Amino acid sequence: MSTAEQQPDPFTPPQAAEARVQRVHASLMRIAERHAATDEQRRRQVHPSVLGPHEAVRLVAFLLSGAAQLADGEAEVDHADITAALSLVPLARGELDELETGLLQMARGRGMTWHEVAFGLGLGTPQAARQRYERLAARTHEGVDD
Questions:
Q1: If you write DSSP's letter for every residue of 27-52 in order, what string do you get?
Q2: Phi, psi angle pair for 114, to nearest 5°
Q3: First-residue to last-residue Cα distance in the chain
Q4: pLDDT at site 134
Q5: For a Cys staple, 126 with which of 8, 11, 37, 114, CB 3.0–4.6 Å?
Q6: What is the pLDDT of residues 55-76, one digit of tens each?
């Protein structure tokens, strides 16, 4: 492979979607290596005896899709299990919204610019990142008052 083939063409814009996929993979690897390298580190974020809403939804989806296999003697996923998982989706989404809102607040509190936040979220502009934060903050604040 020649040097010209190894370097990106300076006249071709970068592929944003491809770069995002690479960043997602690199992000997972970085956090796993730095903060989830041991079983103890991975378990500190979950309650050891209670399944969280996002875990329950993911488990049912994985079992239905075949990405996870049933254990010996485990009941097949039925319509009631699917309904239960669907019932938990709004709660899981709300928890993720609260996590994102908090993470955005902490990022800004640590001095990150809206430009840096936009890059991390895969958004095109700092304005888009700020608007996303404002929508999330309003939505999570509404959920607290209800």
A1: HHHHHHHHH-SSHHHHHTTS-TTS--
A2: -65, -30
A3: 61
A4: 97
A5: 114
A6: 999 999 999 999 999 999 999 9
Residues for the chain: how many in total? 146
CB 102 within 8 Å of CB 60: no
For residue 57, how many other CB atoms are within 10 A of its CB? Answer: 20
Residue with tokens 């770069």: 19
Does the model's pTM come out above 0.85? Answer: no
Residue in the block written with tokens 């903060």: 35
The angle at the Cα of 94, spanning 41 to 91, to the nearest 5 degrees, equals 90
Task: Express the helix, strand and coil content of the chain in percent, nearest 5 each.
Answer: 70, 0, 30
Question: Which tokens in the block code for residue 54?
Answer: 């996002």
pLDDT tens for 107-118 read 999 999 999 999
Structure tokens at 32: 């796993």
**Distance of alpha carbon 125 from alpha carbon 113, whole angstroms:** 11
